[in-house]
Each structure stands twice: as structure tokens, then as C-alpha cells.
Amino acid sequence: MIRIENLSFSYEDKQVLKDINFSIKEKEKVVLLGINGSGKSTLLKILNGLIFPDRGSYYFKDELITEKRLKDKEFARKFRKSNVLLFQSPDSMIFNPTVYDEIAFGLRQLSQDGIDEKVRFWADKLGIYRYLDRSPFELSGGEKQKVCLASILVLEPELLLLDEPTANLDPRTTGWFIDFLSELDTTVITTTHNLSLAPELGERGIVLSEDHTVIYDGDINSFIDNIDLLKKANLVHTHYHRHGKLKHKHYHTHDF
Ligand SMILES: Nc1ncnc2c1ncn2[C@@H]1O[C@H](COP(=O)(O)OP(=O)(O)OP(=O)(O)O)[C@@H](O)[C@H]1O
Ligand SMILES: [Mg+2]
User: How many CB atoms lie within 10 A of CB 213?
Assistant: First the structure.
């Protein structure tokens, strides 16, 4: 479904993705890991056709995705329906006066049938039915996250790109989200720095290093169990802590 070949990307003169290569098959669930600033969100934006590589190629369903290709309205319409991105910050996605309008927006743009039924179905599935007439701006962070999720799932996409989807969710909702994701019959790429959550989000991990290259692509558990790889990705930390009266410092992989 996805093929990335020798892809590089820079914001002005700052290179944030270097010579990236990978392929993702249909229905695969992939976790994208890497420290702050390693380029995860940038990569998801490229996969969603919002920004374009300086070098290398990105193929989605065997089509080369370029700015020019997406100027073709019919192609862009198909692409935007099947390839969706949940932004890291829900506030940057929300702009409609009601939750209902927020969820219906994409379907209206695409002039789909059965909008009302679909909006209500997904609002119910995500537990936000009672907010349909409310302003999405008045909701809590987690509730906003669910509205954003409903607004992309309602399109019944083939590829879901999820940027830190559980960042605003409480433990119960995170548990629900993991179950929900595992039942979803869609290709999903999810970013996180949460190592204990990562294996729940997919079997395969792709890891970006601080210098913006892929340093691991494979079984997620093998990555998490390998302290040398974790150190290379800077995904372990040291801090002082106490065991009884003893205060000492060693590597930790737990999440805060
Ligand atoms: N619009 C932008 N203009 C200029 N630089 C940017 C822009 N967006 C991101 N960057 C820079 O590109 C680098 C990669 O950012 P990106 O958001 O992709 O990282 P990330 O891995 O998603 O980080 P985080 O874990 O903090 O979400 C960072 O150094 C960031 O400062
Ligand atoms: Mg990010």
C-alpha cells in the first residue's frame, strides 16, 4: 500500500528526514517511534500528502504522490477519502460550530450519501453522541480527540495515520482505544514515545533516530527488549531514584 524510496525532507535548511526507505502492506499495523523532533509528525504529513519530499519518492497504492498529482481534483478526492491523518494536536483539526458538523464535514466535502446515519454511528461508537449539538471547542482534550477521530473514521479510510492518538486519553479510554484499533480492519500507522503502549498498537515498529534516519524496522518487541537499540534511539533515560535508603542512577525504559 505504501512505498517510500530514498526519501528526504527539509524545513528550509533543516533536514528532518534523511534517506528513508520502507514499504507497508495493506492491513499492517505499524508503530512509528522516535524522540521529540526525530521527524515522526513530518513523515505522517508526507504520507498524508500535506507536504512533499525534496528527494526520493512516495507511492500510495502504486501511485506516485506529488504536489502536481494532488492538483488533479478527482485523484485528490479519492486520496483524501482513503488516506487520513489524526493530527497530534486536536485543536489544529477542529473548526466547525458543532460536533455534528465537525464529524460531517469531510463527508459533505466529498458529497457522500447517508451522512446523518454515518455521523450518528461513529459518534455513538466513540461515546460522543451526547455532544453532537455542542461546540467542539468546549470539550476536554480527550473528548476533542474523539471528535477528531470520529471525523476521520466516518470517511471509512483505507489508511489511518495517527499522531500520538492516546496523548490526551485517560487509562480507561486508552484501553478502549487499543481494543478498538485491534478490531479495525484498516492499515494503521501510529506514532508514540510510550514504549509500554507501543506493542499494543502494532506488531511492527519503525524507529527514527535523533539524526532523522530509520534505525530499526521490524518486530516491535525485539526492539523494546534490546537496550543497545533503545540507547541508539535515545529512548531510554537515566535519572536518580531511591531503593529504600539507596539512591542511585541507571537506565530506565518505563514511561512517566
Ligand atoms: N513547520 C515547521 N517549520 C520548521 N521546522 C519544523 C516545522 N515542523 C517541524 N519542524 C522541525 O522539524 C523537526 C521534526 O519535527 P516533527 O514534528 O516531525 O518531530 P516529531 O518526531 O513528531 O516530534 P514530537 O515527538 O515532539 O512530536 C523538529 O526539529 C521541528 O522543530
Ligand atoms: Mg510529532
Answer: 16
Domain ranges of the chain: 2-92+158-252, 93-157
Comparison of pLDDT for 145 and 243, the residue scoring more: 145
User: Cα of 195 to ligand 1 centre, how many Å?
Assistant: 20
Asked if 32 contacts 206 with a C-beta cutoff of 8 angstroms, the reply is yes
Q: Which atom of ligand 1 is nearest to the CA of 45?
A: 18
Read off the pLDDT band of 60 (50, 70, 90): very high
d(CA 248, CA 99): 50
Alpha-carbon gap, residue 85 to 15, rounded angstroms: 22
CB 123 within 8 A of CB 143: no
Residues 228-243: what's their mean pLDDT?
80
Domain 2-92+158-252 has CATH 3.40.50.300: yes
Contacts with 228 (C-beta within 8 Å, 6 or more apart), sequence order: none
Q: Which of 13, 16, 166, 193 to mutate to test ligand 1, by most ligand atoms within 8 A of the CB atom?
A: 16
Cα–ligand 2 centroid distance for 37 (angstroms):
7
Q: 41 C-alpha vs ligand 1 centroid, how far in Å?
A: 7
Closest listed residue to residue 152, CA positions, set 110, 112, 109, 106: 106
Backbone angles phi, psi at 113, to 5 degrees: -90, 160
